[in-house]
Amino acid sequence: MARTGVLAALSADQERQLTALAREVSFPVGTRIFEEDGEADRFWVLRTGTVHLDLRVPGRRPAVVDSVGPGGLLGWSWLCPPHEWHLGAEAVSPVRAWEFEAAPVRALCERDPLLDHALLTHVATVIGRRLRAARTRLLGP
Q1: Using CB atoms within 10 A of its CB, is residue 106 exposed (0-12), middle (13-18) or buried (19+)?
Q2: pLDDT tens profile 67-105
Q3: How far apart are the C-alpha atoms of 70 and 39, rounded to whole Å?
Q4: What's the burial of 60, exposed, middle or buried (CB within 10 Å: 0-12/13-18/19+)?
Q5: Tell me, what DSSP letter sits at residue 62?
Q6: Rounded distance, CA 91 to CA 77, Å?
Q7: Sheet holding 42-48: strands in order across?
Q8: Closest by alpha carbon to 88, among 125, 63, 107?
Q9: Cα–Cα distance between 108 and 102 in angstroms, integer?
Q10: Are strands 88-91 and 51-55 parallel, antiparallel or unpaired?
Q11: What SS3 state is found at 100?
Q12: Which bin fits 140, alpha (ψ -120 to 50), beta or left (φ > 0)?
C-alpha cells in the first residue's frame, strides 16, 4: 500500500499491523457507500477515484460538503462513539479502496496506544479539514 494520508501518519510497523486487516473493494459510479446516521462499522483508504461527502437537506438533494480522493480517508465516525455516520458518501467516479472493519482496528488500537494516538491525531486533522470545507461550501462566498 502507498504511504499517503493515514498510512503516512504511521510507523512502518503500525502500517504493517493495520494493513494486515485490509481488504480490497471497489465501488461503481453512483454507489451510496454510507448514509448519514447509519452504523459506522468500517472505513476506507481510497486508492483511486473520488467520493463526495454530503449532508441531508430537507426537501432538497443532499448538499455536497467535501470530496475524498486517492490516498484519502473515507470515514472517521467508526472511531468516535456512538459510531454513526455524520455525513453520507457517494462514489462519483469508479473507486478502488482498502476497506477496514472498525472492530478489529479498534481492538488493535487498544493493544497499541501509539497506533491509537497516531490514528486519533490523523482523524482529528481530517475532521478539522472537513468542517472547514463544509463551512466554505455551505456558506459560500
Answers
A1: middle
A2: 999 999 999 999 889 999 999 999 999 999 999 999 999
A3: 24
A4: exposed
A5: P
A6: 18
A7: 23-27, 95-101, 42-48, 73-74
A8: 63
A9: 10
A10: antiparallel
A11: strand
A12: left
Domains of the chain: 5-135 (2.60.120.10)
Residue 86 CA: distances (Å) to CA of 23, 76, 99, 116, 131: 24, 9, 19, 21, 11
79, 121 in Cβ contact below 8 A?
Answer: no
Give 107-135 pLDDT, tens digit per residue. 999 999 999 999 999 888 888 887 887 77
- Global confidence as pTM: 0.89
Residues contacting residue 67 through CB under 8 Å, at least 6 positions apart: 50, 51, 52, 53, 92
The neighbouring-strand residues paired with 32 are 90
The answer, yes or no, to whether the previous bond of 113 is cis (omega within 30 of 0) is: no
Cα distance between residue 74 and residue 72, in whole Å: 6
Beta strands in 13-133 (DSSP E): 23-27, 32-34, 42-48, 51-55, 63-68, 73-74, 88-91, 95-101
- What residue has cell string 499517503? 4
